[in-house]
Amino acid sequence: MKIDIFNHLFPKKFFDRYINAGSGGKDIGKRVANIQTIVDVDSRFRILDEFGDYVQVLTLPLPPLEILAGPEKSPQLAREGNDGLAELVQKYDRFLGFAASLPMNNPDAALKEMERALDQLGASGVQIYSNAAGKPLDAPEFLPLFQEAVRRDIPIWMHPARGADFPDYQTETKSLYEIW
User: Fold this and answer.
1) Distance CA 86, CA 33 (A)
2) Cα 27 from chain centroid (whole Å)
3) Taking the domains of the chain in order of start, what are their residue ranges?
4) Reported pTM
5) Helical segments of 63-138, H only
6) Contact at 8 Å (CB) between 95 and 89?
7) Which of 11, 19, 43, 115 has its CA at a distance of 20 to 30 angstroms from the CA of residue 32?
8) pLDDT at 25 over 70
């Protein structure tokens, strides 16, 4: 059996509400919205069928939740996204598990969502990005989250990310191709 632990998939309801409706429709959010297999499970399974005994652990794609919404609304996005991933894992045996997404621009809510996703939804771990809306992950407010992850001995998927406003080259004012 092949287990692919780094796959991105939008639950359809989440995609329609937050990405397709325009919230994530710029930069990387605009580009991922055009990848059929990032939201269409049947299209994804047609590709998976080519690889035989192959399963996936799911994560939400870019953009990070903290880019889609401010600290007041990002916890709701996390709940809806994680609920959707959990439903997909329960429904399809080709999905072995999922890593919960966290609203890192709201550290208290991120800790609560991590606990909920692990305890109630059966998440395999959590996915965070290499910065939280531009803030480094070694900022003191994130320490309780990492301490809890260590206490639980769970994996953390660390997804590299930086915004399009961070240029690839010195001659640019914005990343034109998101080379990162």
Assistant:
1) 21
2) 16
3) 2-159
4) 0.89
5) 65-68, 74-91, 107-116
6) yes
7) 115
8) no
